[in-house]
Amino acid sequence: MRRTVVGMATVLALLLLWYLTTTVTGLINPSRFPRPDQVWEAFSFIQTEGYGNGKLHQHVLHSLLLVAMGFSVAVGVGVPLGLLMGYSRRAEALLNPAFLLLRPIPPLAWIPLAIVWLGLDDASKVLVIFVAAFVPSVINSYTGVRNIETPVMEAAKMLGTRGWRMVAEVLVPGSLPMIFTGLRLSLQASWTTLVAAELIGALYGLGSILNQASQDIFPAMILVAMAFVGICGAVTTWLLGQLETRVMPWRQGRVVE
Fold this sequence. Notes:
About 75% of the residues lie in helices and about 0% in strands. The two termini are about 25 Å apart. By secondary structure, the protein is an all-alpha fold. It has two domains: about 1-35; about 35-250, MetI-like (MetI-like fold).
């Protein structure tokens, strides 16, 4: 409760500072950083009239869909791959060289190639999001397996645990904390990459609003799009945190019944 109150107080202080420096004192030129009332007018305009080929809810839903698709595929591929590489020395020797070669390449560097392969449609943006979210999920899943204590692994093998039982009863439970750390990093990377990907050839999405508003020199609309990127990122991170709490209640100080 105290953390919530402090956080709200910080946000209110920043909003007050914004109002004082733009509206009251005029220290900041509104043509460079808009006043609160200008941002509210831009928000009302995109809600009612629409901007950049759609209304705000259409842009938000489109961006959420792209993030959900890219993030889901990245996690569905990256987590099992990380678990496999962490458990099997042979798999690591086979796959890790290719992974280490691709890992340093920034996700945004894949945008031109994604456009060549898939055009300017949503598929190219999902591919770029996949690349951004894939690396953290692999690395943290791999680290999670390697952090499982050796006596635990030896005891499981001694008791005859093999195959899917080893994965379901040892590898996944022992790696969950690091897996969820990777999921949070992957989700953050997904939102960051989405905005960059939507700056090019997107008809809908928060990134397309940013692109259109920059061309129209519309700072208030830019701030609206930025605010909703932050809101969407915060909400999806909170939902992931709720899932983590349910999967690992002991990390929140809860008693498993």
